[in-house]
Amino acid sequence: MVSVGKIERNVLRAPLTPRRVLVVDDSKAQRKVLSLSLMRWGYQVMEAGTGEEALEMCRRTDFDIVLSDWVMPGISGLDFCKAFRALPHERYGYFILLTSKSEKGEVALGLDVGADDFLTKPVNADELHARLRAGERILGMHRELMEKNRLIGSTLGELQKLYDSLDRDLIEARKLQQTLARDRHRDFGRGTASILLRPSGHVGGDLVGFFEISARRVALYSVDVSGHGVASAMMTARLAGLLSGASPDQNIALTGGVEGARDAWPPEMVAARFNRMMLEDMQVEQYFTMAYAEVDLETGRVQLVQAGHPHPMVIRAAGGVEQIGHGGLPIGLLPNVAFERIEARLHPGDRLFLVSDGVTECPALDGGEFGSEGLERFLRRNADTEAQALLEALVWELNGHTGGADFPDDVSGVLFHYRG
């Protein structure tokens, strides 16, 4: 029985928001004594004489705390606890079993079905109030957690809306970026140029293309801007305008020649002009690598510059593959860099291939890269393959190398076939 003498010494102020408590016991006297203590401590109390009655009340009302006797006719306190936990309530209810059982096995069984705490009968008022305060702390933490979860859910909903909006914008940005390389193949008479451009995400930092310098000279370029995403895509858009054959007056590589004939800066000067522009005019944190080549359609002479880009490949008509270039520094890192001009010669049937590091650094499942050696082997096996089919085959080769995983970096390249 509850020690009534101790009740008066434990009367506390009522909580600001009184908790609803359900007292379940087949003894009316025991219920009244417990209810008296609870009401003196500021709780809203309801009573039930059986487990069935208590369960029906719990279906209609969310109780914060339940005090239930273990041994009752009909549904026992243990079965009532199981059923109570199965009810579809959003709020958590703190469940205390009142029992004369003290064996560890019995206590473990009660905890296993969902009880939070135990009180041994006869109930001591001091101990009861201490257990209720512990329950209050748990309910408070649960309420706080639920509120935080609600806020997180609301925030996630807002973030999802923002993500969906950004996703739509990025899809449109990708469509616009694809127009930067509108011509995927062009026939220049004595040679053809074909390009490959596969962004790894919505938008990428790779740019490939070609433009006509004059009736006998063609320029090819492959650019890889540092980083990924919108900032890199915006830089590629800027660079595309500076390497456009459709707007020669804006093209950083072109210059007026004798009697107004179109001419171009040597490749090493094109790289130097870009480097000065990045450091002095743009003053951004980005940099880019580039391979830029000029091909004479009559003689097959190639002049190119390699600025931190993978080595250009020459695929000979006889089936051999040669790497050319010496590496060089990226554009936009250091001032006053001297870029080196590299020269080569194409013979009829030879091809020149400029690729980004998304090809050479494409990783396998074990971490190994495709590498320049892997690219050489592929080109030897496909030396007789038509240009556009060869580029498509390269994508399939890289897809097999990654085991079907998404490419972690943009894959791009420009392939020039010299007819002579």
Automatic annotation (TrEMBL):
Protein name per Swiss-Prot or TrEMBL: Serine phosphatase RsbU, regulator of sigma subunit
UniProt keywords, alphabetically: Hydrolase, Phosphoprotein
InterPro entries: Bact_Sigma-Reg (IPR052016), CheY-like_superfamily (IPR011006), PPM-type-like_dom_sf (IPR036457), PPM-type_phosphatase-like_dom (IPR001932), Sig_transdc_resp-reg_receiver (IPR001789)
UniProt keyword annotation of Transferase present: no
Source organism per UniProt: Gemmobacter aquatilis
GO molecular function: phosphatase activity
PANTHER family assigned to the protein according to its UniProt record, in alphabetical order: STAGE II SPORULATION PROTEIN E, STAGE II SPORULATION PROTEIN E-RELATED
Residues with PTM 4-aspartylphosphate: D69
Record domain Response regulatory: where: 20-136
Matching CDD domains: REC_OmpR
